[in-house]
Structures are given as structure tokens and as C-alpha cells.
Specification:
globular; alpha+beta
Length: 197
């Protein structure tokens, strides 16, 4: 996969944050990061249709640009909308009293992030509106240096969270100089910085 195609994959994954379910998007990102292109394509297309996630014409063109089969009929099953709706979540800097303790994840992510190009880490509490694909949880946003591989950083960090802590938290990896999606911008605007180790 060439650099332009990989950038399109990364952009589509970022655009679908908050629209596809966390687990599905995580799987898609991990498959692409590992070079499992066909498996990633199938997972993306089938779950867009299954979860009834609509895409814009521009997103459809981006997806078509990196599919192994640009004429994949599964792409036709994905609903198309004129523009992306607002994120179905509200973000805040603190969670409720009964929120899970994120301390262990804070420590692991802040320690590992610099090894993957990360220079600043943030955490926000996410509450869903009606119709959101996932429930309330902590969400992390990691800023990485321009040119860093966002998908590999994501895959490596979420793998460490699971293997070391048996914890799964939504994580958005965003490169300096790139525009944020509405979901990423809302999470970052409400987030508190996590001190880097």
C-alpha cells in the first residue's frame, strides 16, 4: 500500500470515530495497521452496512480509492448522506463518581506513547446521546508528531492496554498539522491533559 493510499485509510478511520462502534473501528484499524488489507476492507464494509452507518460521497470515494476491489458490491450497501451528523456524544473533563478508575491506563499510555511518536496525551469522559453506538467511557486523544504512523501507534498502544492491563479504552491518535474530525475535536476540547512519563 503506497503512502497516499495509507493516508486515505487513516483519514477514513478517523472520520468514522464515534460513528462505527468502538470495537469495530478498533478491529478495522488493527487489520490495516497489520497489513491485512482484504480482511480490513471486508470488516469495514460489512460493519458499515450492519451498523447502518452512513457515509458522505467524499468518504465513499476515499474508501473506493483504497479497496482491493474498488467496485466491491458491499460498498453499494452503505447508505450515503450529504454531510456527517454531529457526534452522538457529549464530552466532559471529569467522569461521574462511579466512573472506572483510569489511573493504570494513564500510566501505561503516558509511558508508551513517546515510543510511538506521541508528545501529548489527553483524557475525557464520553456520555452517549440516544442512538450512539457505544456507552459512557473514558476516551483518550494522543497527539503524535507529523509523519508518525497513526494506525501503528493506535494498534501498538491498544494492544499494550489489553495485554498488560486487560483494559480497552477508545483512543484517537492525531498527527500535528492534520485537521480534526468533529468527534476528535469535541473530545480534545473537553479533555484534561495526562502527564507524560
Amino acid at each position: 500500500m503506497d503512502e497516499k493510499t495509507y493516508a486515505a485509510v487513516t483519514e477514513v478511520c478517523a472520520r468514522l470515530a464515534g460513528r462505527l462502534s468502538d470495537d469495530t473501528l478498533s478491529t478495522v484499524r488493527e487489520h490495516y495497521a497489520a497489513g491485512e488489507w482484504d480482511l480490513a476492507d471486508d470488516t469495514l464494509l460489512l460493519n458499515l452496512a450492519y451498523e447502518v452507518v452512513s457515509i458522505t460521497p467524499n468518504e465513499r470515494d476515499l474508501i473506493r480509492s483504497f479497496l482491493g476491489d474498488p467496485d466491491n458490491p458491499d460498498l453499494l450497501n452503505v447508505p450515503v448522506i450529504a454531510e456527517v451528523p454531529p457526534p452522538p456524544y457529549r464530552f466532559s473533563p471529569t467522569g461521574p463518581a462511579n466512573a472506572p478508575d483510569p489511573t493504570r491506563a494513564d500510566i501505561l499510555l503516558s509511558t508508551e506513547a513517546p515510543r510511538r511518536g506521541g508528545h501529548s496525551l489527553y483524557r475525557a469522559w464520553r456520555d452517549p446521546f440516544d442512538g450512539a453506538p457505544d456507552g459512557a467511557t473514558w476516551v483518550y486523544v494522543l497527539r503524535v508528531a507529523e509523519g508518525a504512523d497513526e494506525l501503528k501507534a493506535y494498534s501498538g498502544l491498544t494492544a499494550r492496554l489489553w495485554t498488560d492491563l486487560r483494559e480497552k479504552w477508545p483512543l484517537e491518535v492525531v498527527a500535528d498539522g492534520e485537521s480534526l474530525t468533529a468527534y476528535q475535536a469535541a473530545a480534545l476540547a473537553a479533555a484534561r491533559p495526562v502527564r507524560m512519563a
